Amino acid sequence: DIQLTQSPSFLSASVGDRVTITCRASQGIGSYLAWYQQKPGKAPKLLIYAASTLQSGVPSRFSGSGSGTEFTLTISSLQPEDFATYYCQQLNSYPLTFGGGTKVEIK
Amino acid sequence: EVQLLESGGGLVQPGGSLRLSCAASGFTFSSYAMSWVRQAPGKGLEWVSAISGSGGSTYYADSVKGRFTISRDNSKNTLYLQMNSLRAEDTAVYYCAIKGGIAVAGSFDIWGQGTMVTVSS
What we know:
The complex is a heterodimer. Chain A is mostly beta strands.
């Protein structure tokens, strides 16, 4: 099974900061990686698919990069509505797996 | 509008059974693979199971294999998760999600609101 390791697991940042979250896969998954945002009590929301493609309606301050085993999610200028938990997910092979999550909190 | 509405959650004793349903609307249900994802209280997301559009292929996480069964009724636009031999560690919010097609590289682009399952005596 493919394991995904996200880092950091917790991040404290201020509005306007540039934020980067890393997701490492235990084996190569090409570009079969998605990023989701989840706010408390809500279902996850797809932000990025195929490692770097922005889902329709998602602000351009979000971007994704990487391929193979190392991926990043970057928020160029953190906004108040971005404080949430972020998850990566591999879609290369079953069983599909999620990373452990990164909680982004207000400094 | 595309919608997914889960139901069937509740309190069940260890060793018991429960069947979750996910009613879909606003899209051609049979054209899409579907999945169940769960989230234990205060924990991260865990993929549980998936099923192809036709229902002919199914996939499970090791943690539920042999206990849970995913199925679908394309005539009713409904996805199911039959959960047997439930354990305390199955306590979670269960979400159904559309495994999107090529347009989103198979990502989960639409999610339901979730249904809570509590396994406790």
